[in-house]
């Protein structure tokens, strides 16, 4: 009886995978034409492609530590295992040397490799499908101009069956629809440019989008916040004023933050510091203004703080730790120092319901990116080797209740959970 049930379940899964593959093939056939746009001036196209590679921060994933730029090999941790980014240089044997512009377009637009294999959604083709063909061609031309580097692909380390073609086909059937970005007629050209960049090549929802059990986001236009479990950081919601909404920021402040990684009251830390360093600081002024316009217009939805039992004794321990280790820079009243150390009173990173980022900063320090607009950022030392898990929780709890702050206490268990689920 059990054998029949197992065989029946496998047959149903195979049937679903086959149906998904057939449906996906129909979607691919109905996708926009893969006819390349007129190439235009070669030098202009290369310059444009280099700029678009910055917009997408392609080197961020496709460059291993100490490796050649764009030669791949960096591991991208996911809940299902590690995906290793491939070589994007024009090496004929291990890179894109034998690829055509049509094949590159298909990878971006449909998530298929040169040989037709389905690609892992760790490569965010659910965002890149929105990229227009002329931009894809310019990006491909730039990648083809890079020095060729022989760097064989590292096999992915994914738990079975998540890396199988059948599993990917099922995922795509439920979670992916190809389609180039279409301007919203209700909005002006600047807003649409910002939406095109943010939803497409900049793939903001890849981090800031919430994910279901299959690892899929609701769509490239949703930025509801998500725990980057394998990194130990939380990508806050861009729709929530209590988290990272910028609807109340001025356009000038948001442009400064995207350009330099800081403005009064906020600094880019953790994964976002990498984004500013490798991508947004290099954006043209018009595109920064467009992204600022779009991000400031996102619909707002405020979360409700959880109700938890307070622990006054823990906060008292934290108050002593703050006086000993933190007050010298951030001030006795948590007001910080203008241009150097951020205020902690009213700081959204301190107050977010999810305390992961606050704990991560306490543990590993805080280091904003060194950018042209902020070439020598002030940093904060790490305290993981100095404070116990209970002391880290105590310090975080104090910060979340001092100087008018109101947020739930942090427990030692929160610290331990963060340590157990992250990848360093």
Describe what this molecule looks like in 3D:
The chain has 424 residues and is mainly alpha-helical. It has three domains: 29-175; 189-296, Cytochrome Bc1 Complex, Chain D, domain 2 (Orthogonal Bundle); 312-421, Cytochrome c-like domain (Cytochrome Bc1 Complex, Chain D, domain 2, Orthogonal Bundle). The chain has 18 helices and nine strands. It has helices spanning 2-29, 42-55, 58-62, 101-110, 125-128, 133-144, 165-175, 189-199, 205-208, 251-260, 271-278, 285-296, 312-325, 327-330, 348-351, 356-364, 389-399, 412-421; strands spanning 75-78, 81-84, 157-158, 226-228, 233-235, 262-263, 266-267, 366-367, 379-380. The strands form four sheets. Strands 1-2-3 form a three-stranded antiparallel β-sheet, with no helix packed on it. Strands 4-5 form a two-stranded antiparallel sheet. A two-stranded antiparallel sheet has the order 6-7. β4 (226-228) and β5 (233-235) form a beta hairpin. α10 (251-260) crosses α12 (285-296). The longest helix has 28 residues, at 2-29. It is globular, with a radius of gyration of 23 Å. Mean pLDDT is 90; it is low at 1-27 and 29-37.
Ends: how far apart? 46 Å
User: Class by helix and strand content?
Assistant: mainly alpha
What general outline do the C-alpha atoms trace?
A: globular
Oligomer: single chain
**Beta-strand segment tally:** 9
**Count of the domains:** 3
Q: What does the radius of gyration come to?
A: 23 Å
Physical arrangement of strands within the biggest beta sheet: 1-2-3
Level of helix content?
40-55%
Strand content: 5-15%
Helix count, DSSP H or I runs of 4 or more residues: 18
Order of helices and strands: HHHEEHHHEHHHEEHEEHHHHHHEEHH
Biggest β-sheet strands, sense, barrel: 3 strands, antiparallel
Write down the overall mean pLDDT.
Answer: 90
The residue ranges in which pLDDT falls below 50 over 5 or more consecutive positions are 1-27, 29-37
């Amino acid at each position: 009886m059990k054998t029949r049930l197992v065989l029946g379940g496998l047959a149903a899964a195979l049937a679903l995978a086959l149906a998904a593959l057939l449906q996906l093939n129909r979607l691919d056939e109905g996708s926009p034409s893969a006819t390349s746009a007129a190439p235009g001036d070669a030098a202009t196209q290369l310059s444009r492609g280099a700029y678009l590679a910055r917009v997408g921060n392609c080197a961020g994933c496709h460059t291993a530590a100490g490796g050649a730029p764009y030669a791949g090999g960096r591991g991208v941790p996911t809940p299902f295992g590690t995906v290793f980014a491939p070589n994007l240089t024009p090496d004929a044997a291990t890179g894109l040397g034998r690829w055509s512009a049509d094949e590159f377009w298909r990878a971006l637009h449909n998530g298929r490799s040169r040989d037709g294999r389905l690609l892992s959604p760790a490569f965010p083709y659910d965002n890149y499908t929105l990229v227009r063909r002329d931009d894809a061609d310019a990006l491909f031309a730039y990648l083809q101009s890079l020095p060729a580097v022989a760097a064989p692909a590292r096999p992915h380390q994914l738990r079975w069956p998540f890396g199988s073609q059948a599993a990917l086909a099922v995922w795509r059937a439920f979670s992916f629809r190809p389609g180039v970005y279409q301007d919203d007629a209700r909005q002006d050209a600047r807003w649409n440019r910002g939406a095109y960049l943010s939803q497409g090549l900049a793939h903001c929802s890849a981090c800031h989008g919430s994910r279901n059990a299959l690892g899929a986001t609701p769509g490239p236009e949703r930025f509801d916040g998500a725990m980057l479990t394998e990194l130990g950081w939380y990508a806050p919601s861009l729709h929530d004023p209590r988290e990272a909404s910028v609807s109340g920021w001025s356009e000038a402040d948001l442009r400064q933050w995207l350009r330099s990684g800081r403005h009064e009251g906020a600094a880019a830390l953790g994964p976002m510091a990498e984004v500013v360093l490798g991508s947004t600081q290099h954006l043209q002024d018009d595109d920064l203004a467009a992204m600022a316009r779009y991000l400031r217009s996102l619909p707002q939805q405020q979360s409700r703080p959880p109700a938890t039992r307070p622990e006054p004794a823990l906060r008292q321990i934290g108050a002593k730790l703050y006086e000993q280790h933190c007050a010298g820079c951030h001030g006795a009243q948590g007001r910080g120092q203008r241009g150097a150390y951020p205020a902690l009173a009213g700081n959204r990173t301190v107050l977010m319901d999810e305390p992961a980022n606050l704990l991560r900063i306490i543990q590993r320090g805080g280091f904003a990116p060194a950018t042209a607009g902020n070439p020598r950022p002030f940093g904060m030392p790490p305290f993981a080797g100095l404070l116990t898990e209970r002391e880290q929780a105590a310090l975080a709890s104090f910060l979340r209740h001092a100087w008018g702050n109101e947020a739930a206490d942090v427990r030692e268990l929160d610290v331990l959970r963060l340590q157990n689920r992250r990848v360093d």
